[in-house]
């Protein structure tokens, strides 16, 4: 009798394990951490297309840039969508345990400079305050725009992509640089805290600003290395679910959505 009961219990236990397996590791779910705009909006549009491929998409919007790669490295999500390659490389320099790779670029967000006081960068007075993001990986990106406008000169021995304010060799207008968190830049612009403010497109859009219409200067998209990517853990870029995700994000429907939705403020990239 005891043997019969024990056998029955083992069968029940085996059934529970099987059920757990079918609802856990075998579940065709893709979990992506993404910023609210435009990343999560683009993923929302991709959701039905992934469903056609048999995948359920779950999007997690986090509050801090530093949380995204940590969540990916800690296996809390399958991928993240918020950054460009220079930022990813900087993050991995600072966090040696991050083994992350670029699974593919999706779109480009041209950086803009905004001001309520002046019509062009050349109108900035001597001693003007320029508010920049404190994102080290984007310092060169912002400074390159100022150099192109003839406001500063950067050390030619330093790659522009790696440049910081320390690499400014000429600053004829004695511009003052103030660095703040990216999510605070739109507020700084609205409250006129500086003479000109660099704002990431996602925060510009959230504050109803269009870089093509409202910025006094927008960076060039030609040969631009700052396309936003899908990042994954090394090795996962070859997985079926990530391949499915990239196929959808590179589809004509998603590209058309990006072009129509953001009116040139966000641009789809080619595969």
Structure write-up:
The protein is an alpha/beta fold and 271 residues long. 39% of the residues lie in helices and 21% in strands. The chain is built from ten helices and 13 strands. The protein has helices at residues 2-23, 36-52, 65-73, 85-94, 139-148, 185-190, 201-206, 211-214, 240-249, 252-262, and strands at 29-34, 56-60, 79-84, 100-108, 112-114, 129-133, 153-154, 168-170, 176-180, 196-199, 217-218, 228-233, 267-268. The strands form three sheets. It has a six-stranded mixed β-sheet with strand order 2-1-3-12-4-13, with helices on both faces. A five-stranded mixed β-sheet has the order 9-6-10-5-11. Strands 7-8 form a two-stranded antiparallel ribbon. The chain is globular. 35% of the residues are buried. Residues 1-18 form the signal peptide. A lipid is attached at residue 20 (S-diacylglycerol cysteine). It is a lipid-anchor.
Q: Can I get a quick summary?
A:
By secondary structure, the protein is an alpha/beta fold. The chain has helices at 2-23, 36-52, 65-73, 85-94, 139-148, 185-190, 201-206, 211-214, 240-249, 252-262, and strands spanning 29-34, 56-60, 79-84, 100-108, 112-114, 129-133, 153-154, 168-170, 176-180, 196-199, 217-218, 228-233, 267-268. Belongs to the nlpA lipoprotein family.
Helix share, percent: 25-40%
**3D shape:** globular
The strand line-up of the biggest sheet is 2-1-3-12-4-13
Total number of beta strands? 13
Which spans have pLDDT < 50 for at least 5 consecutive residues?
1-26
Q: Could you spell the SSE succession in H and E letters?
A: HEHEHEHEEEHEEEHEHHEEHHE
- Structure annotation, total helices: 10
Structural class: alpha/beta
Mean pLDDT: 89
Rg over CA atoms, rounded to whole Å, is 23 Å
Give the DSSP E fraction (strand runs of 2 or more residues). 15-25%
Distance between the first and last residues' Cα: 66 Å
Largest sheet: 6 strands, mixed
Main location: membrane
Family: Belongs to the nlpA lipoprotein family.
Protein name: Lipoprotein
InterPro entries: Lipoprotein_NlpA
């Amino acid at each position: 009798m005891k043997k019969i009961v024990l056998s029955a219990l083992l069968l029940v236990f085996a059934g529970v394990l099987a059920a757990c397996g079918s609802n856990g590791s075998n579940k065709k779910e893709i979990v992506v951490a993404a910023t609210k705009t435009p990343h999560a909006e683009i993923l929302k549009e991709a959701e039905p297309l992934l469903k056609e491929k048999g995948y359920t998409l779950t999007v997690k919007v986090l509050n801090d840039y530093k949380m995204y790669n940590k969540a990916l490295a800690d296996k809390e999500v399958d991928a993240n969508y918020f950054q460009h390659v220079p930022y990813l490389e900087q993050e991995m320099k600072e966090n040696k345990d991050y083994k992350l790779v670029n699974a593919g670029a999706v779109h480009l967000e041209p950086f803009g400079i905004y001001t309520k006081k002046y019509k062009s960068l050349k109108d900035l007075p001597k001693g003007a305050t320029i508010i920049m993001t404190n994102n080290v990986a984007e310092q060169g990106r912002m400074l390159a725009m100022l150099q192109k406008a003839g406001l500063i000169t950067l050390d030619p021995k330093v790659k522009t992509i790696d440049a910081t304010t320390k690499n400014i060799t000429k600053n004829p207008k004695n511009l003052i640089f103030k660095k703040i968190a990216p999510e605070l830049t739109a507020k700084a612009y609205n409250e006129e805290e500086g003479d000109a403010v660099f704002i990431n497109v996602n925060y510009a859009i959230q504050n109803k600003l269009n870089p093509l219409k409202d910025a006094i200067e927008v960076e060039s998209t030609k040969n631009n290395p700052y396309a936003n990517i899908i990042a994954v853990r090394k090795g996962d870029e070859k997985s079926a679910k990530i391949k499915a995700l990239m196929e959808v994000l590179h589809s004509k429907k998603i590209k058309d959505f990006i072009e129509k939705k953001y009116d040139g403020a966000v641009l789809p990239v080619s595969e």
